[in-house]
Amino acid sequence: MYNILVDFELSKRINLNKLGITFRKLTVPEKNKILNKINTVYFQNKKIINDLVKKYNILDELKVTNELLDYDKDTRDIIMFCYLGIKKGFQFNNERKIKNKLNNMIIIIIKKEVLLEYVSEEKFVKILSNILSLYDIYSKVLETNKKVRLDYSYILDDNILNPKEENYNIKLILNFIAVYKKNNGMMKYVELSEEYLIQLEKFISKLKKDEIRRFLNAIDLLYSEYTMVQNSIVSKVTIIESILIHEKEDIRRSFVLKAGLILKKYGEFNNNTSNKFIKDFLSYSYDMRSAIVHGNEEKIPVISNQIIQKNKYIKELMEKCNDNYNDRKKHAMYLADNILLIAVRSIIKCWIDNPTLIDFMKNNYEK
């Protein structure tokens, strides 16, 4: 069981039944238990905390510790944590705001026996993180949603409904009470919408098991960390091929055609000039990938030179870098990676919006 904080109150349970994942809000008894615990942990100690904040500065930690010697260890830890938090720029929510946060808390439940059909248990958190990060594609396709984090794993490592967890009291403060002044941020906050979760529910319900595996693999590749742009290019082409391309068709030709059709629609390209730009750029990106996987990276400058002779818009993009061989090579790869990112985002969004269309595109090809 996991918990996240959003900026809306979930109106109903959302079940990704074929994945064994359920999103629900807190029940009234659960809210009351948490409120009672918050009262014990924070509000009963609030006056002590505020007095210490007024009396001492951030360098007086030892003096504060001495004043707390008569308290039990748990109470000392809570008071010191709150004291240091306030001194370092955190502010603390009042009861009204805390109740509002509780209304906006989402509990995520996993049926292990179902999700284990697709991934091992140690991957559960990463899969959940990927699903949450995928909300990124519901911003404008050509603009990455900067509010969406690409990894939420670190906020999915505790269970707010289990008071026996280690450091539960501190986690309670971080979940509902402490807010960082500069951006009004809270640790558990996730950029999300109920509309996205509902669309995801409909999408997953229409997939067969092999398609679910393909989907999970695709978003795992999308939200993996790469130290080299070469690996990112290979992964993005792999995602597109796995979603759109049948193994028996002309892969390069179909890659350019099918990805281009979706990119034109979701990328909001409209005219004949953009048609040529999309075709040339996707061809260029696929050739980059081929050079990388076949160990022919020395061909990358050649591929780059060929494409700028064919397309003046790509030439303009390439002219922004230096003439240095390594710089031009790196710039050429980053250009390919950027257009592939837009293509991948567009194709996954199209898949979620219209899985029947994607199934048709994948399984209908020239033999």
Please sum up the structure shown:
With 367 residues, the chain is α+β, with helices and mostly antiparallel strands. The protein contains 17 helices and six strands.
Percentage of residues in DSSP E strands: 5-15%
Query: How many angstroms does the end-to-end distance come to?
Result: 48 Å
Radius of gyration: 25 Å
Strand order of the largest sheet: 1-5-3-2
* Number of discrete helical segments: 17
Q: Report the biggest beta sheet as strand number plus sense, adding barrel if it closes.
A: 4 strands, antiparallel
Give the fraction of residues assigned to helices. 55-70%
- The number of distinct β-strands equals 6
User: Which descriptor suits the 3D outline?
Assistant: elongated
Low-confidence stretches: none
Output the structural class. Answer: alpha+beta
H/E element string? EEEHHHHEHEHHHEHHHHHHHHH
